Amino acid sequence: MPRLCLALLLFWLACPSWALTPAPLDSDDLRLSLGPYTGYYEDVDGTLSVEQVQALDDDAFRKPGGEHANLGKNASVWWFKARLVNALEHELGGYLEVNYPLLDRLQVHLIGPDGKHLEQESGDSFAFSQRPVQVRNFWFPMQLEPGVNTLLIRVETSSTVFVPLFFATYGASAAAQENLMGFNGAFYGVLFAMFCYNLFLYVSLRESAYLWYLAYNLNVGLLAACFDGMLFKLLPEHVAFQSVSIYILMYLHCLTAIQFSRHFLHARQYFPRLDTGLRLLMLICGGCLLSVPLIGFAAWNILASVTVSLVSLILLLTGIYVWRRGVRYGSYYTLAWAILLFAFIQATTGSLGLEVFGVFGATVVKIGVTIELITLSIGLADRINLLKEEGFQSRRAAEQAAFENQAKSRFLAKMSHEIRTPLNGVLGMLQLLRETPLDRSQRFYVDTISSSGSSLMAVINDILDYARIESGKLSLEQIEFDLEDMISETLSLFTGQALDKRLRLYISLENGVPRRIQGDPTRLKQILMNLLSNALKFTAEGHVAVSVSRRSDSHGRPHLVIAVSDSGIGISEQALAQLFESFAQGDSSTTRRYGGSGLGLAISKELVEMMGGRIEVQSTLGQGTRFAFDMPLLAEQETVDELSRLLAGRTALLASLDGLGLDAMSRLLGRWGMRTERCQTPERLQDYLEDFAAPPLLVLMAPWPGGVNHWLDSLRPKLQAQQRVLLVCPPEACQQLPASLGLRLQHLAQPVAINALRQALNGLYEEPKAQVQQLVREIRSDNSEAPCILVAEDNPVNQLVVQGFLKKRGYNVRLVTNGQAAVDEYGRDPAAVHLILMDCEMPVMDGFEATRQIRRLERSQQLAAVPIIALTAHILEEHRQHGLDAGMDDFLGKPLDSGLLYSTLERHLKRPGMVH
Q1: Cα 669–chain centre separation
Q2: Is 238 in a helix, a strand, or coil?
Q3: Is 99 exposed, middle or buried (0-12, 13-18, 19+ CB in 10 A)?
Q4: Which residues does 90 contact at the CB level (< 8 Å), separation at least 6?
Q5: How far apart are CA 132 and CA 167, in angstroms?
Q6: Confidence class of residue 205 from pLDDT cuts 50, 70 and 90?
Q7: CA proximity to 208, closest of 264, 280, 268
Q8: Statement: the pTM of the whole predicted model exceeds 0.70
C-alpha cells in the first residue's frame, strides 16, 4: 500500500511536465520570454472560435521545440495558449510582445481571473496606424489582474509561423528596446558608412563594380529594414506592398548580387564562359520573380528563400573558381560569400521551421551581411590597388616601349645614314663609270656591282619602312593618280628581269576599273613591287601575271582588287601560316638561295591594312602562287577616255600560241570597248580573217610560227589596204620589222605595258597630225653662263660624285666642306650662287643651322631666296620636316639618282625670279 501511494504521488508530480506551466509574474520590473510557458494548437481549417479553443484541455496543446515556436511555412491557423500568473497584490501593466513583424493577422484574447474577456487585433495586413502600439513589431498593452490570466493568440500568416512571445512591464520593455536600438543603429550605421564610402569611390573612379556594390548595399539595407518591420513605419499606408515587399527584395538581392559579381570579378573580360553562366542565372532569377501568377503566392515566397540560398551557394563556388584561377581579390569575394551563405542558410532553414542552431531571426543575417559588406569593400579596395599596380606597370612598359622605339628609330636612322653615305659614293661612281667607254667584261662587272648595291638599298629601305610602320610614324597620302601609268611604270622595272629569265609577264585590267583613282601611289607601287619581285624571284620558268579588277563588298562598296600570280615553286601549308610575319620566309633555305630580308610581305600586309583592305594568298607547292589584295575605291570623277571613244564597237582578231597572253590582251582591249576574237591555230588564221564583214584590227603576238618579219607574208592577200595591224614581239625581234606596204602597222615590245599599248592603239586609229619638231636643249658649253651651284659636303667620295654629276651636265660648281663655310661663301657674293646643295650632317656647323643663317642673311639684306636642296642620307619624314622648318626647299636622298638630281635642279633653277 505505501508503494502504491508513492507511485500515485510521483505521477501527480509528473503531470505538470505535460500540462501548460504557468508563467510567474512576481515583479513590477520584468521582461519574461513566454516560449517555455506556451503551447500551440493547429486549426487546419481555421474554423475554431475562441470559446472552442478555450474549452480544449491543456493536453491538446503541444510545447514548442525551441525557445520560441517556429512552425515553418504552412496554410493552417495556429492557436497559442499561455497562463500568466500575477503573484502581486495589484494589477500589473505591460506589453505582450510578438516580435516577428511578418505575421499577417494576430488576434489576442486575454481572459482574467474573473472571466473578463479582452480582445485585440493586429498584423501586417493592417495599416500601421491601426496597431495598438505603433512600433515595428506587434505589441499589445495589457493590465493583468492578480491571479491566473489566460492568454489565447490566434495566428494566421503566409509567412513563416514564427511567434516569439514576451511579456514586459513598461520600464523593462523600454530598457530592452534601447539595447536593441543600439545594435540596429550599429548595423544600419555600417551600411550607411559603406554606402557613402563606396559612393565617393564610384564618383572618383567611375568603376562599374562600385556602382553595383551601391545597388547591392541599398537592396540589403531595404531587405533588413523589411525583415525588421521598419519598412512598415516608412510606408504606413501601403499595406498590399508590405505583404510582398520582402520577397521582391529577396529576388532583387539575387539579381544585384550576380551583377555585382560579374563586374567585381571581371568575368566578361577574363572568364567569358563563366560570365555567360552568370547571365543565365540572372535570367532564371528574373523568371522566378515574375512567376507568382503561375505558382501562387505561397509557393512563390518559399521559392524566394530557396533562391537566395542557392544563388549564394553558386556565387561562393564562383569565387572559389576565380580564386583558384589566380585572381587575387577572389579570396575576399570567397570569404564574404561564405559568411553570407552561412547566414542565409540559417535564415532559410529557420523560415522553413528547421532551426539548425536553434536561432531564427534578423540578427544572424545582419551580422553576416555586415561582415560581408566590409569584406567586399576591402576586396574592392584591393582590386583597385591591383588595377593601379597593373596600370602603373602598363604605363612603365609603355614608356619603356616608347623609349625603346625611339632608341630603335634613332639607331636605324643613324645606321641608314652611315650606310647610305658610302653607298652614295659606290652607286654614284658606278653611274658615272657606266657612261664611260667600257668593254663587255667591264660593263658586266659594273652592272653586277650596281645590282648588288641596289639590292642592299632595297633591304635598307625595307627595314626603315618596317620600323616606321611599327612606331606609327608612317602616314599615307590621299591624292588622285593615274592607275594605268603607275602599273606600267612598275612593270617596266621588272621587264629586264623577266626577259633575262625568259618568263612571260602579263598585265590585264578588267572593264570597270577606273583610270584615275584616289590613294597613295607610292605605297601602292611599293606593294605591287614587293609582290612582283617575289613572283619573279621564285619563278624559274612559265609566267607572272598581274590582274586588276573591280569588285563590291557585302555592303555594295566598290573595291579595287589587284592580284599577282605565278607558276613558281609555290609555298607549303606550314610556311603559309607565318608568311606575313617579319623576317620570315618559306624555309631556312629560301634566304640562302633567293636572298631578301623577309620584310617585303610583312610591310605589304601592313600597308594594305592601313589602306583599309586586306591581303590573302593561295598557293600549291610546285605549281605556283597567287597573292591578291584589295583597297576601297573612293568616289572617283568620271572622265572621258579618248581611246574608248576611238575603239568603241570595233573588232580585233588576236592571234598567238599563248593562251594566257591572249586572255590578257583580250581583257585590255575589252576595257576600251573592243570586241575580240581569238585564234591559236596558225593554219586557220586566214579563215578567221574571212569571217569579218569589216577589216578587224589584227594583233599578232609572239609566240607565233616563223620570224616576225615573215608573219604577214602569207596573210597579205587577205589584208585590205590601210588595215590596222599590231605586231607584239620580243624586244630583240622588234629591230627587224616588215615593211608596211599599205598597211597601218604598229609594233609593240613584250612584255606589253598598258601605256605603250595605249599609244600604239592611238597611233593606229587617230588621224595623222603634222609633227612639230622639238628642239633638244643642248648642254651648255659656255661655262660662264652656266648656273653656279654651291655644294656643301664633307665626305670626299660624295664630293667627287656630286661634282661628277653636276659638271657632266655643264653646271659651275663651288665646293665647301661644312655649313659655316657655306654661309661665308654665299655671304661673299649672293648673286653669284644660283642654288645650294646642302648636306645635313657636317662638322663645325650642320646643314640645318647653315640654312637658317642663310635665310636670316637674305631677310636682313632683302635678297631673293636662293633654292636650298637638302642632300642627305637621312630619309625619314622627321628629317625632311626638320629641313623644311629650317628653310630648305627640297630634299634629295642618298644614294643620288642622277635623273632625279637633274630634274630637281631644273625645276628650281627655272623658278620665277632666278637669274641665269
Answers
A1: 45
A2: coil
A3: buried
A4: 146
A5: 15
A6: confident
A7: 264
A8: no
